[in-house]
Design a protein that fits this description.
Pfam families: IF4E. By secondary structure, the protein is of the alpha+beta class. Helix content is about 20%, strand content about 30%.
């Protein structure tokens, strides 16, 4: 014979807590996972009749993993944006324009997505870049990252990372990126 104990249906229902719709979640389920930085999502809808800065709108600011996913899951995918539209995800306090003090001497990594591969690649590249940036996956480079950009263009889309310095070079001998302080 086994030592398995069978609980009655009443015992099981009494011991298990079922969340009732409309009731607040228990505090142990309300845990937030803070990010190292606060991030601002910006959206640009191009309009040739307006100044570029007038077309740029801040959508939201977040500083937790949960708020990132809540925002990401409720906005249009990058591949669903109209031609000439952009998303910018920048650290709070840095405007997504070259004239901002953090960007003025900055550099970028750029990936061009061929227009024929937009559906297959653009959303994947954009999400992977967002996750790497907000999740601080660039190791020691996190302090140098200003943000990320996705540009939706008819000739081909672009996904880029913006840095505070343009003295970032690729070391072919090791296949890694490094800072070049001699520039």
């Amino acid at each position: 014979m086994s030592d398995v104990q069978v609980e009655s249906k009443d015992q099981f229902q009494e011991e298990s807590r079922v969340h009732e719709p409309g009731m607040p979640l228990p505090s142990e389920l309300q845990v937030r996972h803070p990010l190292q930085n606060r991030w601002a999502l910006w959206y640009l809808k191009a309009d040739r009749g307006k100044d570029w800065e007038d077309c740029l709108k801040q959508v939201s600011i977040f500083d937790t993993v949960e708020d990132f996913w809540a925002l990401y899951n409720h906005i249009q995918t990058a591949s669903g944006l109209n031609w000439g539209s952009d998303y910018y995800l920048f650290k709070e306090g840095i405007k997504p324009m070259w004239e901002d003090d953090s960007n003025v001497k900055g550099g970028r990594w750029l990936v061009v997505v061929d227009k024929q591969r937009r559906i297959q690649l653009l959303d994947h590249y954009w999400l992977e870049l967002l996750l790497a940036i907000v999740g601080e996956q660039f190791e020691d480079l996190g302090d140098f990252i200003c943000g990320a950009v996705v540009n939706v263009r008819q000739k081909g889309d672009k996904v880029r990372t913006r840095f505070t310095s343009s003295s970032f070079v690729y070391d072919q001998s090791f296949g890694i990126f490094k800072w070049d302080f001699s520039l």
